[in-house]
Amino acid sequence: MNERESSKKVHKLKIDTRFPFRTIGISCHENDYRLIWAVNAKLNTVFVKIDDFTDYSATGEGKTFSRYYFEDADRYISYYILSNRCDNGYLVPEYRKFDYFLFLRGETAPGYAEALVAKLKQIDILSTAFLIDNHTIKSIKKLLNLDA
After folding, report:
1. What is the model's pTM?
2. In this predicted model, what pLDDT tens digit does every residue of 40-61 receive, in sequence order?
3. For residues 22 and 113, is the Cβ–Cβ distance under 8 A?
4. CA 119 to CA 26: how far, in whole Å?
């Protein structure tokens, strides 16, 4: 081996695997407007319905999911609640047990998401709520455009 071959630089590509949001799965068999009313009452939020989220990623046909939004200007956090079910499928098929997802977009203080889950679990109409590790969501790429 000559001197030139031994001095080759190795470049490594680092991929940022952080996601710009935290995900909470919610099981609730009530209609979305009933869930939003209960969440607003418990968390002192004002979620409002915005345009449905449309997913074209699966087969090219658009699947639409109801979407609600709340912005906490004091904490610089945007909240989205999306339905996981529509007439022709699921938003996140690997988490069919969840009826809705709550996404927190922005930097949250340590323990904030966990405390939010604990408050959600106190809502009578919710079966359960869990913090989800985004790395376990196979279809995560389609959720990167929540505010589109």
Report:
1. 0.82
2. 999 999 999 999 998 877 566 7
3. yes
4. 12
